[in-house]
Amino acid sequence: MIYLDYAATTPLDARVLEAMMPALVADGLQANAASSHAPGFRARAAVERARAQVAELLGAEASEIIFTSGATESNNLAIKGVLEFRGLRQAHVVTSRIEHKCVLDTCRYLETQGARVTYLKPGADGAITPEQVLDALTPDTALVSLMWVNNEIGVRNDIERLAPLLRERGVLLHVDAAQASGRIDINLKQTPVDLLSVSAHKAYGPKGIGALFVRRKPRARLAPQMHGGGHEQGMRSGTLATHQIVGMGAAFEILRREGAAEAERIAALRERFWQGLQGLDRIHRNGAGPSAPHVLNVSFEGVEGESLRASLADLAVSSGSACSSATAEPSYVLRALGRDDELANASLRFSFGRFTTAGEVDAAAERVCLQVKRLRSISALWN
Ligand SMILES: Cc1ncc(COP(=O)(O)O)c(C=O)c1O
User: Fold this and answer.
1) Which residues line ligand 1 (CB under 6 A)?
2) What angle do CA 179, 185, 187 make, to 5 degrees?
3) Residues sharing a CB contact under 8 Å with residue 348, sequence separation 6 or more, in sequence order
4) Whose CA is nearest to atom 7 of ligand 1?
5) pLDDT at residue 320 tops 70
6) Strand partners, 181
7) What is the pLDDT of residues 111-121, one digit of tens each?
8) Which one of 151, 198, 227, 315 has the fewest beta carbons within 10 angstroms of its own beta carbon?
9) Could you identify the atom of ligand 1 that is nearest to the CA of residue 102?
10) How far apart are CA 209 and CA 92, in angstroms?
């Protein structure tokens, strides 16, 4: 089995596992980080170290990092939290049609509560331009929520240019950076994003842990969505998952040191794979805009989506996003880019990462070429 689904999740790095182990066992960091005794203080120190490691990768202050259970929760907290704080009834949100479901469904929920939402359509290149966002603003716009890197096509939005434009206009900007952190350069000291969501399991850390960056100056104000003991500055109650948090810190620390070189290596593997597919005609690379290094989304003319996936059972790849592949509907992201149902269905997302080798890339490309040619030879869709 060749694993080319790093955008869905990444394996834990062995160094991260090693960092996490002491937080799981007796005489380690097993105490509650909120407890006022020596073991509790040790656990707290480990949490704060991890908070600083996460902040460092993003160019943030440690006090701006709120730990959550992952990017889904961070996105919910950011979007619902801002709107609830501002007052739902009058509020307007600007987002895009190709956000992750956890943003889209949160927006749809808020619409049932009286909010208004504008869903921007990306260009054929897969990006939303800052001008599109500015055109959509109204005097009631409380929040813009836009992803930095799209999970299905890897295309990046120009958040560096958008953020100062929104700051000038006094509109809050939330960015879903689940696919971006560690893969592209993020410096929140230079880019005035107000809220930013990240997840550890997209970055060689454990599943079930993520964070929301909440800017302090100027302060982004939110209503908490989880009430309880007042953890995480009152924004996210619940006993801190020390082992997960330590793992996320270690994963982000590794990315801070190795991310830039790794991104170059992964981008080269992706291009090598794309070159390997060039023996096939009538294939289309989805999302021509500037992109993060790890995702390649390809539509194959003249094959049926279901047969294509079945023929590649020894490759772990994704048809659209993993979260929505249970629905067997053509990807809403590819549809928004203008692909018709048939072509959207005959599309695969290949995503590459830390443990991908050139040998795997070559073998996978060869396998895809072979199967697409075979399916076309027996397909009524191909002439
Ligand atoms: C862009 C994007 N946002 C949010 C999420 C959700 O992240 P998590 O699995 O940490 O809840 C994902 C992962 O599927 C993603 O790719």
Assistant:
1) 70-72, 100, 102, 147, 151, 176, 178-179, 199, 201, 210, 323
2) 110
3) 297, 298, 300, 308, 309, 312, 317, 318, 319, 368
4) 71
5) no
6) 184
7) 999 999 999 99
8) 227
9) 4
10) 29
Q: How far is the CA of 73 from the centre of ligand 1 (A)?
A: 9
d(CA 281, CA 266): 25
Stretch (H or E) spanning 141: strand 141-147
Q: 302 CA distance to ligand 1 centroid (A)?
A: 31
**Ligand 1 atom with the shortest distance to the CA of 72:** 11
226 phi and psi angles, rounded to 5 deg: -125, 115
Rounded to two decimals, the pTM is 0.97
Per the annotation, the verdict on 323 as an active-site residue is: yes
Q: What is the pLDDT of residues 243-288, one digit of tens each?
A: 999 999 999 999 999 999 999 999 999 999 999 999 999 999 999 8
Q: Which atom of ligand 1 is nearest to the CA of 199?
A: 10
Q: In testing the pocket of ligand 1, which one of 68, 79, 179 has its CB within 8 Å of the most ligand atoms?
A: 179
State in Å, rounded, how far the first CA of the chain is from the last one: 32
6 CA distance to ligand 1 centroid (A)?
12
Domains of the chain: 2-6+259-377 (3.90.1150.10), 15-254 (3.40.640.10)
The pLDDT of residue 321 is above 60: no
- In terms of Cα–Cα distance, which of 208, 191, 89, 198 is closest to 149? 198
Q: Can you tell me the distance from the alpha carbon of 304 to that of 344, in angstroms, rounded to the nearest whole number?
A: 10
CA gap 157, 14 in Å, rounded: 32
Burial of 209 (0-12, 13-18, 19+ CB in 10 A): buried
Q: What is the DSSP letter of 23?
A: G
Give distance in angstroms: CA of 72 to centre of ligand 1.
Answer: 6
**From the CA of 100, how far away is ligand 1's center (Å)?**
7
Q: Which atom of ligand 1 is nearest to the CA of 75?
A: 4
Separation CA 61–CA 72 (nearest Å): 22
